[in-house]
Amino acid sequence: MEQTVYHIPALLTQSIDGLAIKPDGCYVDVTFGGGGHSRAILSCLGPKGRLIGMDQDMDAWQNRLQDDRFTFAHGNFAYLKNFLRYYGCDHVDGILADLGVSFHHFDDVERGFTFRADAPLDMRMNRNAALTARDLLNGYSEERLADILYLYGELRQSRRMAAAIIKARPLSTTGDLVNVVRPLIRPAQEKKELSMVFQALRIEVNGELDALRKLLAQSLEVLNPGGRLAVITYHSLEDRLVKNFMRTGNIEGRQEKDFYGRVNTPWHVVTGKVIAPSADEVERNPRSRSAKLRVAELVSRPDNGQQY
Question: pTM for the whole thing?
């Protein structure tokens, strides 16, 4: 039987360096996946250090680390604060989030994350979640489908695609979806635009951007002053959210300035320029090519009632 790799972590060295790990600190990897980043964090911790690895997909449990300093938490990082309280670690010294889809999700074709094989329209990261891609495609209005394809996939043909989906209902498999949208895609752009269609649906099914907003907002509450937030994004929607939040301290990216015109923010941005993988890394791991790392250090928590 062929052995498959669950995931190869992107920007591994850069993200671990960015966390500036304290040997006796408490850290959380909110996208545990195959455990690659978590193993690297553990290697930097001393006997008193602690690491919590979170993942909403229970498949990741099989990769849990046999180490007394490690705790696996099955859940969505949108509820980070509650999980940390439950595991007795209200405040942490670092948060790592790798927002990419793991190899496992693409390679397990039955999960429906890829257009390269015909499979049920699922796309759920958490198999216990109620909404599937099939529910979305067969139940959403034409206007709502068009908005999702345009906002989350940045597809110019979003309205024509939505109309074609409505006409072709019911859709059951990824192959059904590909057959509906393929005539609306230029052959030279087929791979790219099919990826964008699947990205848009996956984001909606899993509420990815809403979860990211909640994670970022909670980072202000759970990080110790001097703690670091490291986030690896893979598309412009995520990266824009993270960049604006780290620059301004609020989800909207709204700049609030002091008397001298300096932006009021609880963060010090460690990565002045976004960090991308080297040519060597992309050659070794082509799926890392769109990865972008941003790291910020919490200077101080916002005062009670102060909105960042």
Answer: 0.93
